[in-house]
C-alpha cells in the first residue's frame, strides 16, 4: 500500500507514470470509466477549496467510484474523536482517504492508524497533487520537464515546497525568489536538493528579484496562505517587488506563467498577466482533475 503524503514517496518513474496516465485519461476518459467501480474514498477538508474538492469528487465519479465529502471546516480532525479512531472507522468503509489539513501531522496519523492509502490534498507543508498537475501542464506547454528553468516568485509556502520536491524528482531547475524570511521550508529544501543533485538539476532560493532572468516558467501563489489570518494589505509592502506583473514577466523571459489559484488579483499577480497570453492557470486547474484520476487509480488499485 502506498500513500501520497509529501511527494517524496514517488520515483521519477512513478511521477511519469502518473503524468502520462493523466494525459491519456484527459484524451480518452471513456477508457477509464470503470477503473474504480465499487470503490470509494472519504474526502476530508479542514480548509476551504474550489479546485481540489471539485476535482477529487469528480475523479471518483469519472472512474466509476464514489467520493464521500466530509465537511470539517467547522472543526479540525481529532476534536470529536481521536484521529486514530477516526481513521480506523473510515477504513472499514472506504478504499482511500483524501485530506486537506492544517497540520501535516494529521495526515501522518491518518496513515499510521488506517489501512488504506492516504492522499495529501494540501497541508501546511505540502500540496503534492498540485505540483503533479503543474508539471503535467509544463510538459504539455513546453514539451519537457527535465532541464526546464522554473522561477517561483513570492511567498515560500506549501505550494513552493511541493514544486521543489516534484521538480527535484523530475529534473527541473527551480529557483525560489522570496523576500527575506519568507523562504520555503529549510528541511524540505535540503532533502529536495539532495535528490536534485542526483538528477542533475539545481534548486536555489534567492532574495534578489533583479536576478529573475532567463527562465522558462514563472510561478506564483498567494502571499498569505489559508490558516494565516494576516490581511494581504499588511504584507503588501514587503511582497510588492515580487508581484508578477507585465514588466517582471518580460524581465524573466518566461514562456508561460503559472498560479495554483485562487489568485489575489492586484497582489501577487496582475489582471494583465492572469488574463494574458502566457497565462496557463486554467490549464493547471483543469489538469487537477486528470491528475487526481490518475493518482486515485494508481493508489487504490496498487
Ligand atoms: N489550487 C487549489 O488547491 O485550489 P483550491 O484551494 O480551490 O482547492
Ligand atoms: N498556499 C496556498 C495554496 C492554496 C491552494 C494556501 O495554502 O492557502
Give a written overview of the molecule.
- It is a single chain.
- The chain has 302 residues and is an alpha/beta fold.
- The chain folds into 2 domains: 12-127 and 288-301, 3-Layer(aba) Sandwich (Rossmann fold), CATH 3.40.50; 130-284, 3-Layer(aba) Sandwich (Rossmann fold), CATH 3.40.50.
- Helices cover 42% and strands 14% of the residues.
- The protein contains 11 helices and 9 strands.
- It has helices spanning 12-27, 51-62, 83-90, 104-113, 128-142, 158-170, 186-199, 232-239, 246-252, 271-274, 281-300, and strands at 40-45, 66-71, 97-100, 118-120, 149-153, 173-177, 203-206, 217-220, 256-259.
- The chain has a 5-stranded parallel beta sheet with strand order 7-6-5-8-9. A 4-stranded parallel beta sheet has the order 2-1-3-4, with helices on both faces.
- α4 links the parallel β3 and β4 (118-120).
- The longest helix is centred in the last third of the chain and has 20 residues, at 281-300.
- The protein is globular and about 55 Å long.
- The termini are close together.
- The mean pLDDT is 97.
- The site of phosphoric acid mono(formamide)ester has 9 residues, from α2.
- It holds the Pfam family OTCace_N.
- InterPro entries: Asp/Orn_carbamoyltranf_P-bd, Asp/Orn_carbamoylTrfase, Asp/Orn_carbamoylTrfase_sf, Asp_carbamoyltransf_Asp/Orn-bd, Orn/put_carbamltrans.
